[in-house]
Aldo/keto reductase
Amino acid sequence: MTTQPPQNLDNHPETFIDVNSSLSLSPMGCGTWAWGNRLLWGYEQTMDQDLQQVFNLAVSRGVTLFDTGDSYGTGKLKGRSETLLGEFTKAYQGPNQDKICLATKLAAYPWRWTRQSMVNAGKASAQRLGRNIDLVQMHWPTANYFSWQEWPLLDGLGDLYEQGLVKGVGLSNYGPQRIKQIIKRFTERNIPIATLQIQYSLLSTYPVTELGVKEVCDELGIKLIAYSPLALGLLTGKYQENGQVPKGFRGIVFKQMLPKIRPLLQGLEEIAKFREKTMAQVAINWCICKGFIPIPGAKTCQQMEQNLGAMGWRLSDGEVMELDNLTQKVDKQMVQNPFQTK
């Protein structure tokens, strides 16, 4: 544990990030996978009023980027996350109202294989959102299994941009080699790639450390977004090795991971106590210090308040380095997204 005095404890105002002339992103966002997902996150429609309050709190405090996907919510809840965001946005009146940015990801479903199917998907998402999409993203690449499917879908994203239906185009789960190929094709159409979203946290550094994603994105002017910055909740300190764990799939992962990541959690806890912050706030702030826009989820105002506490300050260089070292020593990191390309 570093013994140097805390640095940058004074107010550190966060500024919005201008991606282009019409698209501006807050330095931290809110992921809304849980807003409609029953299987992994236990969503119920009785939660909607609380989720509206979470939305209101976030926007009023400067977190105006909300990331969703047209696959968030299945069956009778198809597109539920987008629908809720549309309702919440329409109902909200208050600070930063004009800065709300709705970013959605369009899924590369097997039945979507033409560029028009992607345009239609974008229009359907916009209808659920009650407004045009601000940032449209390819949810995952198909290069690892159906490479022939991917280019038409990407071209469809470009069509949405050219038709003025979106303000920006982004990617998700792409590696540097594939990004360069897409940039070349989109440059010919004068369409910029604004963002890249990857799984990134203290327990998931593979796209950066092994693939070199950050260097390529920095060179190309692509802003990085970190999803699952708390590693499904493993980095919050809420769960203990011999204690209660979440139900279902997350519980299985937690039981396997918690004993293996003990040194990292101990180091994270020490820095959190030294900083008078929570472990989750330190883990999110680490992502910000690494140049990412983290998008942690929140289902309650208490969780959102905690996320907000990750803003307005910075870990010292020594603390970042210490966490980097602990991460490298972890016996096992999170399972990587199987769609992640090189």
The first strand starts at residue 17 and ends at 18. Confidence is low (pLDDT under 50) at residues 1-10.
